Amino acid sequence: xxxxxxxxxxxxxxxxxxxxxxxxxxxxxxxxxxxxxxxxxxxxxxxxxxxxxxxxxxxxxxxxxxxxxxxxxxxxxxxxxxxxxxxxxxxxxxxxxxxxxxxxxxxxxxxxxxxxxxxxxxxxxxxxxxxxxxxxxxxxxxxxxxxxxxxxxxxxxxxxxxxxxxxxxxxxxxxxxxxxxxxxxxxxxxxxxxxxxxxxxxxxxxxxxxxxxxxxxxxxxxxxxxxxxxxxxxxxxxxxxxxxxxxxxxxxxxxxxxxxxxxxxxxxxxxxxxxxxxxxxxxxxxxxxxxxxxxxxxxxxxxxxxxxxxxxxxxxxxxxxxxxxxxxxxxxxxxxxxxxxxxxxxxxxxxxxxxxxxxxxxxxxxxxxxxxxxxxxxxxxxxxxxxxxxxxxxxxxxxxxxxxxxxxxxxxxxxxxxxxxxxxxxxxxxxxxxxxxxxxxxxxxxxxxxxxxxxxxxxxxxxxxxxxxxxxxxxxxxxxxxxxxxxxxxxxxxxxxxxxxxxxxxxxxxxxxxxxxxxxxxxxxxxxxxxxxxxxxxxxxxxxxxxxxxxxxxxxxxxxxxxxxxxxxxxxxxxxxxxxxxxxxxxxxxxxxxxxxxxxxxxxxxxxxxxxxxxxxxxxxxxxxxxxxxxxxxxxxxxxxxxxxxxxxxxxxxxxxxxxxxxxxxxxxxxxxxxxxxxxxxxxxxxxxxxxxxxxxxxxxxxxxxxxxxxxxxxxxxxxxxxxxxxxxxxxxxxxxxxxxxxxxxxxxxxxxxxxxxx
Amino acid sequence: xxxxxxxxxxxxxxxxxxxxxxxxxxxxxxxxxxxxxxxxxxxxxxxxxxxxxxxxxxxxxxxxxxxxxxxxxxxxxxxxxxxxxxxxxxxxxxxxxxxxxxxxxxxxxxxxxxxxxxxxxxxxxxxxxxxxxxxxxxxxxxxxxxxxxxxxxxxxxxxxxxxxxxxxxxxxxxxxxxxxxxxxxxxxxxxxxxxxxxxxxxxxxxxxxxxxxxxxxxxxxxxxxxxxxxxxxxxxxxxxxxxxxxxxxxxxxxxxxxxxxxxxxxxxxxxxxxxxxxxxxxxxxxxxxxxxxxxxxxxxxxxxxxxxxxxxxxxxxxxxxxxxxxxxxxxxxxxxxxxxxxxxxxxxxxxxxxxxxxxxxxxxxxxxxxxxxxxxxxxxxxxxxxxxxxxxxxxxxxxxxxxxxxxxxxxxxxxxxxxxxxxxxxxxxxxxxxxxxxxxxxxxxxxxxxxxxxxxxxxxxxxxxxxxxxxxxxxxxxxxxxxxxxxxxxxxxxxxxxxxxxxxxxxxxxxxxxxxxxxxxxxxxxxxxxxxxxxxxxxxxxxxxxxxxxxxxxxxxxxxxxxxxxxxxxxxxxxxxxxxxxxxxxxxxxxxxxxxxxxxxxxxxxxxxxxxxxxxxxxxxxxxxxxxxxxxxxxxxxxxxxxxxxxxxxxxxxxxxxxxxxxxxxxxxxxxxxxxxxxxxxxxxxxxxxxxxxxxxxxxxxxxxxxxxxxxxxxxxxxxxxxxxxxxxxxxxxxxxxxxxxxxxxxxxxxxxxxxxxx
Lengths: 759, 759
Fold this sequence. Notes:
The structure is a homodimer.
Chain A: E1 6-9, H1 17-23, E2 26-27, E3 31-33, E4 48-50, E5 75-78, E6 81-82, E7 89-98, E8 103-111, E9 117-126, E10 133-142, E11 147-156, E12 167-175, E13 179-186, E14 192-202, E15 206-212, E16 215-224, E17 229-240, H2 253-263, H3 269-287, E18 290-293, H4 296-312, H5 339-351, H6 353-365, H7 367-376, E19 399-402, E20 409-411, H8 414-417, H9 420-436, H10 439-460, E21 462-463, E22 470-471, H11 489-512, H12 514-524, H13 526-539, H14 566-570, H15 577-580, H16 583-587, H17 597-603, H18 610-621, H19 632-641, H20 645-660, H21 673-687, E23 690-693, E24 696-699, E25 707-716, E26 719-726, E27 729-734, E28 740-744, E29 747-751, E30 754-758
Parallel strand pairs in A: 24-28
Antiparallel strand pairs in A: 1-7, 2-3, 3-4, 5-6, 5-11, 7-8, 8-9, 9-10, 10-17, 11-16, 12-13, 13-14, 14-17, 15-16, 18-25, 19-20, 21-22, 23-24, 25-26, 26-27, 27-30, 28-29
Helix pairs in contact in A: 4-21, 5-6, 5-9, 5-21, 6-9, 6-10, 9-10, 9-11, 10-11, 10-13, 11-12, 11-13, 11-17, 17-19, 18-19, 19-20, 19-21, 20-21
């Protein structure tokens, strides 16, 4: 029986440690802590990441989120034997993340080599109420006989990113014989991390403190009698010198955080947990998608997506954005990609628009760097980095790892060629404005981003001497198996769309707020630029369906060789095709890593009739290996555009398995954030049929057969709605009385507080 | 039954991993590799150290020997289950270091969770013949049924020094689908390490190569049938940019080492092992101490000492010396202390004088730094660093770890106050000359060292206004529980002795080689200095026995408070007294960490009659906690000076247990090098009664009752001897016909090729 709120393991296995560590990560957007066990195992990979604390560890290393000192480990010695599930016997076992409350809990009965049984419960959460707070609780009950117990726990700064150490040790102290404080500093970016922790132990045990190199530990020891329960609570607070609250003042953060931990001296795990789970409750009320279905797995997968989007997003600080693996692992080094704007941002836009705005503010803050990058490549405007970290500089490594056999370095072209990110960000700005109606944002930031993106496209476009059209040459589209191509359909349409909208928005501004328009015009040179923008939109080459109705992915794609990709699609191991073919060979085939033309159809469905969409979907799907986690959910949504709900549902289920599937190693380096965002997209923009057209909401639900009902919250232009849809009807409710114009299944309605469309 | 050649464990236990890793370390003076298991365990600490490759890892870190990339790990998957002795059942188990051949071998029968049994043999050695070579061999036999086996092994550069990473990754490559090469560079000292390795597998298995972050691995996989044996040999070569052979030319070491590993393509583990074990055979022939005793443990302990002195000593390069933990762990950070000259050098002096000379050359190479240190402290001459590493700079941290409770840093005074190291080095130079007769060394280096040491003492001494004597104030003697004292007896006598000898040596040089004398005189200012040296020796205050016959350790020691130290002596945990008393309180007590006045008696036994030695021995022994491993063996030797062979033997046995005792954690950070040297001292200078007086050999054996016979080799003034002694006689044999004057039990003899003194 699936419990839609629980990610769980019912059997201990070393093999799945990478998976459960990532999937059951606890977090709150400020920090993420992988779900490593309290006790150590070879191969276990603890991970503790704090948003924005990027560091570059020197020669040949790339800026990444460092793995900070651990507070989750407990070394437990019972009757002089180290507690490990590899030893003795495990009689009952359950290990689960409760996504409803954000608590990780492991319950088991362990029999040691002396045939004594112990009931052990391990609990842990990262507070959603106080973003600096982490709490653990361990209880050990001697079921058969008394036992001698020794436990060591504290702060362990020996953690590395796969062997790379990012920190200097600054200080380790014990205050008042209770509070441990450890301060570490990143080696290059000089971010200080302040870890504070203390233990509460019942019954009274002996205690002492020890230091080892890069460790500060408390050891407690004593006897538990038969049926007695030993309880240890560990309360930890973590701050960094990046924290916004310290920006203005010259706070001694060591002292400040020590005061804060002292304030928690009399707090309990449970009491602090109540506060955190209340915050989780608030979150779920605002976000939960309810699916009535015979298969609870879908609900579980959707909850999993939402849970992770909540813990991966740095709500607290607009200087940071969402990393491709969230805060769940070392993969992609904590860098920010187009994933944020195209795959994750819509969830926030439709449930928590403040956060969506903040994610766009991150791009605005880094606009200057994007302009510098454009200049460095001889363009104008803003060329956003393909991979972004703390300061908006391009973080994509120029070369991938050297080919170990040839010794040749594979050039990574994404930073230079995957320029569709400029349009992706502009698209998100426009979508944000359409859905939120937040003109204040547009006036203060959004329009400026759009103008700089427009300038980039104008400077990037070349005139084709034969046709006189503008063409965009030598790019990489969303599909990264196809490089150095001209006129990628996705890119050209996105450029055209965003630049057209930019022109419209500025023209509207001119008439509604001429003062601001003039100010912006001076700053951005609109007098000169807007005519260029218009010229661009008129002359940009937009590929059309060929005689068979197939829209070319780019100028040459359709003329490339076609191979049978079956074995690569079925394979569990990613990029299997690169074992049989070189990268260059793959570039010359009609083989896609991920949705590209289909990605285009997803965003531009109204440009084509459903027959064209259908034809293209089948054409391209048969050539797509789905070696990217960004692919499957988009295929699900687009299949719905031509009514194929069964195929859509199959794609959706595959997308849900990207992290939740049986491959024990697919998430070792972290969950797939964009894919989780895409699961939400598939539910709401896909089956729920939600879209917007120039600021007008449209709902065209099409549920899979196994779904009896789909219910979800939406915020649209400031109005909070609930949408419920099933075979019989679609129902919209709102608590506010503002009128909202809405199209349901293509028909226009005015929604006040309630609307029900029966079929 | 003890096998005197085997350090072994007959039962697998996680708890003793730190101990066996250090004790069973393999090495050859160039490199040391801790005896970590092939498979991973939580808490296992792999260690691979190469002499001289010191690096400082940045802020708040101390220069240390870095832990280089590992080549010993094998990840073994049998029937989809990771091989670990924590899982399944272990039916037979033996794990042993054979010190006679330098091979580490583990044999076991493992039953996996599918109830299949496998006979597994793991072998490994570091070549004593080719110092760059490390070989492993694994064999797996399926005893019950066939099985699927996957093994990954290669080069793993994720190793750290307790979380501190010392390396940048420079390159990882696979050549000719076989040879793996990994290049890493220390972050500050820019030493490049070149690791080259390949696997040979029988029968033919599938193979492939993979890279992970900081890892380069080969994976082999296949099926072994019942009774079939899978054999994997791994041959590795390691070079560094420090290697002397590359100093002169501009060699591409990557290419060079690749050629070298290719040359070994057709070599086998066994064939290369034969060469290495022949070198071990040669070593033992030159060094073995044979003890006929009812208790084989003594022989084991002595072999253990000799084995480790052989693998810890960088014979290949006079720019390096012996670290306090050899190359067996992170303890003392690979630094060189007085331990080398006073505790380890005599072994080489009496068995392999070329190495003894080389260890002194290390000091000569760093003489300029010692002179700079003297100047910086307002002295003249040479003030050698208390802790020395690559360039002879003082490496002692100025502060010990901050007291975690008070937040106050404990000042470490050793660098400034433990100046007896200046005399210790001079003493070793003189002893070297006396025993080897190597006047070439004295002329080219030794005399210069002595003169600079002499200058230091002259500049350090102050005139006592009351007595007119020279006093040496505010020092730390060998006993580090006593700080800031005046006229430490050990220090004053050592200064007097070394400066007197220096004067004599220069006077002798004047008459035998006036040309060189004049040259040195000009360089060293002897015209001015020698009168100062004489004046120093005449007026230096040398403490004498008081009315009770007790020689004061320093000016104030005998007036300090006496406490009962019983509980601290018995305790297994070091420095227990510092849990009850502050450091300052301990300084004000008659409590010794280690031999100090007794250390003095050890070196100056002829200055006092045996009654005085006895009285002082008992007085000081009762106040010594032996919290230093440098203590117990010295007490053993000095007890023999007053004929107490039983007590001496008890002390000797305790000294043998410093590493070989039952405490599973006492050697985690590495073996105790000085203590191992002292075990040799106790055998040869103690029970064997070997000493020298101004270049004349003296032998006064006194064996413990349980020893029937003691036989050992000696090299004295170029003549190779064997000494055999028992209750009935002492016998000396030599292969050379040169006449050697020797005192046996106080009586003078002339040894040609054979001499037997019957009792």
